[in-house]
Specification:
The protein has 433 residues and is an alpha/beta fold. The strands form 2 sheets. It has a 9-stranded mixed β-sheet, sandwiched between helices. A 3-stranded antiparallel β-sheet has the order 7-8-9. A hairpin with a 2-residue loop joins β11 and β12. The longest helix has 25 residues.
Amino acid sequence: MGKPKIVLMGAGSTQFSLITIYDIVRHPNLHGSTLVLVDIDKEKLRLTGELAKQLNEKFKAKLKIESTLDRKIALDGADFIISAVEVEREKCWKLDCEIPLRYGIKQVVGECGGPGGLFHALRIIPIVLEICRDVEDICPSALFINYTNPMTRVCRAISRYTKVKFVGLCYGIYFQLAALSKFLGVKLQDLDAKAAGLNHFTWITDLRFKDGRDAYPLLREKLRQTEDYFQPLCREMYFKFGLYPSPSDGHIAEFLSFGYDKMKPEERGYEGWIKPYYSHLQGLQKMATSIANGDLSPLKELEHTWEMYKEGQAIDLVNAMVANERYLELAVNVPNEGHIMNLPQYAVVEVPALIDGGGIHPLSMGCLPRGIASLCLTQINVGELNVEAAVTGSRELTLQAMLIDPVVNNMDVAEKVFNELLKVHASLLPELK
């Protein structure tokens, strides 16, 4: 492949664009590529364009940078589309968390599971599918790389309703490895893992040191001996189900009826989860604005973030495919097709994969333990109803998806929560009848 055309869809997103563009200019194989920035917000797009220009000049990357509000123009000739689209995210997320809680439905995060995750998927799936239908028409050979949550449900919608080649990426396992290395008292680069399951609900099937030694015995000993507050929910799930979960207590709690009660009050809900997350994004926004205005001093801090959490996965993948430089990606979201043998073939699962010039080659992870597979299967079934409801606009399927979700334990309450969430998000849910 020659120099690719890379389209950033939702380029006004600070975290997404800053990390992704920074990653592109750091890859010599991608220097000289065409980079197209797309967003519906003209001012955010202008800022991202200035950011890209500054980084391009700093790293002498010779990128051909374009910006457009029209995605169809951007998609013409595209090789890779990297998408992180959202709509009124913080405002909607706050409502997704607070409304169910008023009725006694406890959500730690409310992003990918529970009523919050359900309505998040209803809002975003139609938008992603619109983009994918344009991809089918304009650049059918391109690879669509999705970052948008709820990852599993968005990717399942792409798989079920389009012919687009896609992969979903999430840095959760890298985040968990950073947390575990600190807990175990070892360097991050000395710890390795393989995990399998669903996005934000994966299970570490192999944890070892880079010299080949099994790290699970040390983790088990430390978890039993320490009295420190370290991921109490992940700890309990490990001792009861046999594998350590990833990426964190807050994320896996979304899918468990008892997850909320295991978390510290200050680590859950809008105040404990969403507000700190947006505080982090504000820091990235400040960093991006400084760089766009010609102040490159934040690059040192940016490099630390990049190295710690591996947030530039998409570009490592693009680089490997363009330059045929094989590497192991710890987490790709793809149709199952036997990668996890005791989960449905049609389901979207998260597994490791080898990436090279021939594409994405997911690893076979065998079977998950029966109890863990059962937990995952419940979420797959919730997701199937949720995806179909997002496409058909079915009120009945939406309510059914809510009623089989583990965090919902009252039928009358579920209907009240549904009606209120539908009311506050009505303008963003034209498909829902």
